[in-house]
């Protein structure tokens, strides 16, 4: 999979070199490229933003600069992703969908966002375009959100994970939160591992884990459960 990131903070994405994602890049499972938006500016100051039409606080990122950058970076069939607190919520299902795309281009906005004609233009031009929010809070820009999405997406690529079963069993893959996990020692600071996990009875373990998933989800994320009949 090809991933391009356009940002005014390319150094932030040194994070792409480390951990499992770094290894996936070495193995050429992921071809990730980071671009400095200012390379597409046309004035000596490298201006990327301007005051909003209609007034108000903050600055808006200029469509002409973004247009030149994205014209160069987007290839046929690419999916353009704009992290934004005003986007649709990012979910595990969306991560799975995006993991099937040939090229993802993340356009990281700062300040009050990118001129709204930019996503409109590329959607009109036939690209898939998604404005996506990491959650109901505001970050300083799209960089952290883009990295979180890249991590959630790339770990779903075939061959990325050593243990494919751990993807099948984790939180959200079946719409529920994951069950609690324990390892040795069986007794720690007066706290005991639930007996059923030491029983060696696979059927009972599976049933207990499913009950724990339901209980956790009811307590922490009731919004994930279907409405009761
Ligand atoms: N940029 C700023 N806040 C954001 C959020 N919550 N999600 C995605 N991008 C953002």
UniProtKB/TrEMBL annotation:
Assigned EC number: 2.1.1.228
Domain of life: Bacteria
Record PANTHER family: TRNA (GUANINE-N(1)-)-METHYLTRANSFERASE
Protein name (record): tRNA (guanine-N(1)-)-methyltransferase
GO cellular component, one term: cytosol
Biased composition (Basic and acidic residues): 208-223
Compartment list: Cytoplasm
Residues involved in S-adenosyl-L-methionine binding: 109, 134-139
Function per UniProt: Specifically methylates guanosine-37 in various tRNAs.
Assigned protein family: Belongs to the RNA methyltransferase TrmD family.
Cross-referenced SUPFAM superfamilies: alpha/beta knot
Keyword Transferase (UniProt): yes
InterPro entries from the UniProt entry: Alpha/beta_knot_MTases, tRNA_m1G_MeTrfase_C_sf, tRNA_m1G_MeTrfase_TrmD, tRNA_m1G_MTases_N, tRNA_MeTrfase_TRMD/TRM10
KW Methyltransferase (keyword) present: yes
Region (Disordered): 208-229
Keywords: Cytoplasm, Methyltransferase, S-adenosyl-L-methionine, Transferase, tRNA processing
Species this chain originates from: Demequina activiva
GO molecular function, one term: tRNA (guanine(37)-N1)-methyltransferase activity
HAMAP family recorded: TrmD
Subunit structure: Homodimer.
GO biological process: tRNA N1-guanine methylation
Catalytic activity line of the entry: guanosine(37) in tRNA + S-adenosyl-L-methionine = N(1)-methylguanosine(37) in tRNA + S-adenosyl-L-homocysteine + H(+)
All copies of domain tRNA methyltransferase TRMD/TRM10-type, residue ranges: 1-225
Lineage of producing organism: Bacteria, Bacillati, Actinomycetota, Actinomycetes, Micrococcales
